[in-house]
Design goal:
Layout (H helix, E strand, L loop, with lengths): L26 H7 L6 H11 L17 H17 L2 H17 L6 H20 L6 H18 L19 H13 L5 H23 L7 H23 L8 H9 L20 H4 L4 H11 L2 H10 L14 H4 L9 H7 L14 E4 L5 E6 L2 E6 L16 E5 L2 E3 L11 H7 L8 E4 L31 H4 L8 E8 L2 E7 L8 E11 L4 E10 L5 E8 L4 E3 L2 E6 L2 E9 L3 E7 L6 E2 L2 E2 L13 E7 L5 E12 L1
Antiparallel strand pairs: 1-2, 2-3, 3-4, 4-5, 6-11, 7-8, 8-9, 9-10, 10-19, 11-18, 12-13, 13-14, 14-19, 15-18, 16-17
Helix pairs in contact: 2-3, 2-15, 3-4, 3-5, 4-5, 5-6, 5-7, 7-8, 7-9, 9-12, 12-13
Length: 630
Amino acid sequence: MLSSPYPFPALTPPPVHPRLMLTEKDLPRIRENLSRPENADALSVMKELCVCPVTGRGATPEYGSYNLKEYLAVEALAFRALLSGKKTDADAAIETLEILLSSFEVTGGNMGARWGGHLIFVCSEVYDWCWRYISSETKLRWIERCEEIAAAYFEMGYPPEKQAALTGHGTEAQLLRDLLAFSIAVYDERPDIYGFCAGRIFSEYIGEVAAYLGEGAHCQGPSYGSYRWTWLVWSELLFEAFSDGRIFGSLEKTADWLIYMTRPDGEALRLGDDFNETKADYNIKAPFAVPFFFAWAMTGRKDFLRLWREGYDRRFLLPDHFGMDYYKEGSWGEGCLSAVSLLIFDRRCPETASPALPPAKYFGSPACETVFRSGDTHVFLKIGEFWGSNHDHLDTGCFQFYCGAPLLTDSGVYDSYGTSHRRQYLVRTSAHNCITVEAPDKNMFGEWKSDIRYDGGTKRPDGGREPRSSSVFLSDEYRMGYLISHTEDEDGCSLAGDLTPAYSHTCSSVIRRMTYSHPDRRLTVEDEIVSLDPSSVKKLHFHCQTEPKIDGDRIIIENVRGRAILKVSSPSGVRIEAVGGDGHAFEVDGVDFPPKPPYTAEAGWGQIIVSAVEKTPRTLFRTEITAERI
């Protein structure tokens, strides 16, 4: 029995089965879903899975006994038994699950936690949906086996007391779907598991989610943000399925943010560590299709349904590679969305009208981001009041500009978490359209490890350690700036911020103002920088996907169907240099840090660096960027 430090939740599962993901009242709608033309693929996949051989030997040696298709097969068998009510169908699900439970053995680490969690979740489905056909002895044995798997493989530990509710893997499936589902299924026999798991969610996660996600934008960027947000929706749906009550209540804003994070070409805006651009083609072109399905399930909004259907690909339900994980191939792994969950969650809510989303939208603190989207144009402006560590980048005050094609963008590739490319280049300030202030004394860079090259970028709060709670995250330690003002209308937007906290080790004041006028597609960036040392070198960085042309005081960037012309009108003396191409595309302090091959399409050609020639304490930069279609 688990001893919980959390108050026992007032919201508890009812003493009936089924209660996991659905109750008896949902069955007519779900049966009707099976006959709906738009769900024909899901029904076909479910039937295919019901005849899939399950061996428990795994798909590939490096993935141990885990095979995504076999786990989805057991889920499909349990769902068939739920709908038919037949003992023979229930026995098929029970016997097949036994194969996976007895054979499970994988390497530990984050993937072991995900695969072990998926097995616990599938076991929970069989347990709840076939409950009356499972003997008491078998139930207790399954509970013991799932606890063994969680204790052996979960990064959160078992009971799940490790990791944080703010960033990291503690915000993913281990607790929010897998152990929560398990605790709901076995509540009659082991209420203590629910008391710990749901108790932690009620005590910690609800408050943390409101603090860091209340304004919609996710501090981990659209890739990890959408992935982790989807697990929050899973938790919301699991509670709501048996109670008709919402626990978070504010998740819809992030689904809207994902709409604004989608560029005109259908791809995700590159922000933070981005794994979408290294995925299978169907995921690259519809990076938020799966989150939009869950947004539809949660809200009933027609625009989310439309976005889901526009991005739909059968491989989201059943990948054509088995055993591989989400980060490498492009399916939403560990059964995040499956044929069964689609058929269960589809049409959960009555259809509601789509709200009128304005062209310009501001998403407040802690991210402080503004997006303008209209036709083939997409402008992104960010202050970033606080830094979220983990998959967040040191990009305070950055911007991006898309017109017909990516023109001014982030650069680099998220090739893996611990690579030299990511550590030395990708997350760094100089890899973004940002300011750097290079002090003569590089020892001011002491908060970094000694092997990190110096780029004059922002501070790195608390040595890069992840904040364990929102009270730490929203503290002076992790503060990078202050919002000064923001405006949005149909003709453009503006965003201004005091970035001094991010540059406090080199500057006494840094102010950036960004104004976009849509009628003339002009982005004006004004920077006022007061350095502590007059001899510090102040630089602006502009990143592009193709080699730029420097024509006097003009910089011309062309990419496919778009062109951007940059002109730095202040100060009067600047040095403009283009640094990129083979051997220089990912350069920091004279050293190139290329990603692991193969490079993706948007790794970037390199950057334009504009430096103030005159060494004075106070420097005013004014840059006008005009874009056009070509």
